[in-house]
Amino acid sequence: MSGFVVLAEFQAKPGCLDAFLALARADAEGSLRSEPGCRRFDVTLLEDGEGRVLFYEIYDDRAAFEAHLQTPHLARFRDGFPALADQLPVRFASLQPPG
Question: What keywords were assigned to this record (predicted)?
Answer without folding.
Answer: Monooxygenase, Oxidoreductase
